[in-house]
Design goal:
Layout: E1 2-6, H1 11-23, H2 43-49, H3 62-73, H4 75-89, E2 99-102, E3 106-110, E4 128-131, E5 143-148, E6 159-160, E7 174-175, E8 182-186, E9 193-195, E10 204-213, H5 214-219, H6 221-224, E11 235-237
Antiparallel strand pairs: 1-8, 2-10, 2-11, 3-10, 4-9, 5-8, 5-10, 6-7, 6-9
Helix pairs in contact: 3-4
The structure holds fe (ii) ion.
Length: 238
């Protein structure tokens, strides 16, 4: 359900470049929130990052836009991403010749006093965005990969139930503690997971990537055809 793998992480130095080039930020990435105190960020964007958002607007961050602009203009990102998948993720599915992956990883930022995902009106107290991915229409054959760009720990990280339908209260979920030289493989399609308000004074940055074995994708072709999860739009085959 949950496995942690060691690897050589090429992404932090690429992500660092985004903020060096755009904001002349040369600090540690887990201090990225310091940029929010500078005039380089508009007041609207500052305000945005001081709040917890609902699901619909939780992707409007200027830093998420910066990431997508970088991906669109620097072929090195996709080369590195595909190399990572082939070297470290494909071997997790030894019986598959191909795998289907998210075309671009989701990047998550959890800034101090905020959270990396949106909240839900039904969230229990002190819990942000309790869900499993199947709640959002994702196919049950998906596996989740989480790649830390900065260390993930305590309230800047993810909380998850250890087994499906555990009935454990989210305040008692497991806390993911993971270093940037490790990545997580998890079945978040069915395992409930959530965030909390980041009460560490460190920003967390991470990628999450959804992966489907190609044979399972083909078996469920009717599910994918014509949905937002279609190949070429949301997913690509490697
Ligand atoms: Fe999720």
């Amino acid at each position: 359900m949950i496995q942690i793998h060691n690897f050589e992480n090429p992404f932090p130095q690429l992500i660092q470049k985004i903020f060096e080039n755009k904001y002349e930020f040369y600090g540690e990435l887990d201090n990225l929130h310091e940029i929010l105190e500078t005039p380089l960020i508009s007041n609207d964007d500052k305000e945005y990052h001081k709040q917890i958002h609902g699901w619909k607007t939780d992707r409007n961050s200027i830093f998420i836009r910066d990431f997508h602009e970088y991906v669109d203009n620097n072929a090195i990102f996709n080369e590195t991403y595909h190399e990572f998948i082939k070297t470290y993720v494909q071997p997790l599915f030894p019986h598959e010749t191909n795998i289907v992956i998210q075309k671009t990883p989701n990047i998550r930022y959890s800034f101090p006093e905020a959270a990396a995902i949106g909240c839900d009106p039904n969230d229990p107290e002190n819990i942000i965005g309790l869900h499993c991915d199947s709640n959002f229409g994702h196919n049950e054959n998906e596996m989740n990969i989480v790649v830390p760009i900065t260390k993930m720990f305590s309230t800047n990280s993810i909380f998850y139930e250890p087994t499906i339908n555990s009935k454990i209260h989210p305040m008692n979920f497991e806390n993911l503690v993971i270093e940037p030289n490790q990545f997580l493989q998890a079945y978040f399609n069915k395992l409930l997971h959530c965030n909390r308000i980041n009460q560490t004074n460190k920003t967390r940055i991470s990628f999450d990537i959804r992966v489907i074995p190609y044979s399972k994708y083909m078996e469920n072709l009717d599910f994918f055809k014509g949905t937002k999860f279609e190949l070429g739009k949301y997913y690509i085959v490697l």
